[in-house]
Amino acid sequence: MFEAGGKWGIELQVNLFNLEKENEVDIEYVVIMVKHGEEWILVRHQNRSTWEFAGGHIEIGETPEQAAARELYEETGAEQFSIVPIAVYTVIIDDAPGSFGKLYFANVEQFAATTI
């Protein structure tokens, strides 16, 4: 468990669980920590001015693994990669009920070609 608070006037609690927790809860989103060689890859959130790990909500009929691969491609352009699950987690802000997500690590070998 990680807790932070005070400076921004909010209380934040992050809980990590082993992967078996997925059988007990509804996983609503995925987050992918992405590395390419020695570089960490972050994405700029379209509605905020922050740099974040790739991720997003799981679509209807999609498994968490399918969502992670889709979000990784959509947000970074990664075409060749390996991806492994790390943990199930929840974030609780100011005692509000938290939703559950699944955390992944991806090692990207190749990104899609871009044209300028």
Automatic annotation (TrEMBL):
It comes from the Bacteria. PROSITE patterns: NUDIX, NUDIX_BOX. This is RNA pyrophosphohydrolase. The keyword Hydrolase applies. Its EC number is 3.6.1.-. Residues 23-116 form the Nudix hydrolase domain. Gene3D superfamilies: Nucleoside Triphosphate Pyrophosphohydrolase (3.90.79.10). Belongs to the Nudix hydrolase family. It comes from Paenibacillus pseudetheri. Transmembrane segments: none annotated. The gene is rppH_3. One of its GO terms (molecular function) is hydrolase activity. Pfam families: NUDIX. InterPro entries: Nudix_hydrolase, NUDIX_hydrolase-like_dom_sf, NUDIX_hydrolase_CS, NUDIX_hydrolase_dom. Keywords: Hydrolase.
